[in-house]
Amino acid sequence: MLGLAACSSTPSCLESQPYMNAKAFPPLKSPAGLDVPEPDPSMRVPEVASGPVGTFDDVPADRDAEDPAARCLVTPPAMAAR
């Protein structure tokens, strides 16, 4: 019976996650006499207008629309060789 309940439960990505309440910290300040290195622009986390998300709005074309976890961002996309 437990196995059946686990299969029908909501994927965790569709529930609120602790990281969704994360707050940004201000830039580091250095003590007198020390310099803070310039931030690496490739490591910048972009702002998201609707806040942190854990799901795609629509099921991607390469996923099974019947799968409740198909919209989860943590589910890796299908890989295809060119």
Fold and architecture overview:
It is a single chain. This protein is low in regular secondary structure and 82 residues long. Helix content is 9%, strand content 0%.
Overall helicity: under 10%
Q: State the total count of DSSP E strands.
A: 0
Note the gap between the termini.
44 Å
User: Overall pLDDT, averaged?
Assistant: 75
Along the chain, the helix and strand elements come as H
Question: What's a quick, concise take on this entry?
Answer:
The protein has about 80 residues and is largely without helices or strands. It contains one helix and no strands.
Structural descriptors:
little secondary structure; 1 helix; elongated
Strand and helix layout:
Layout: H1 2-8
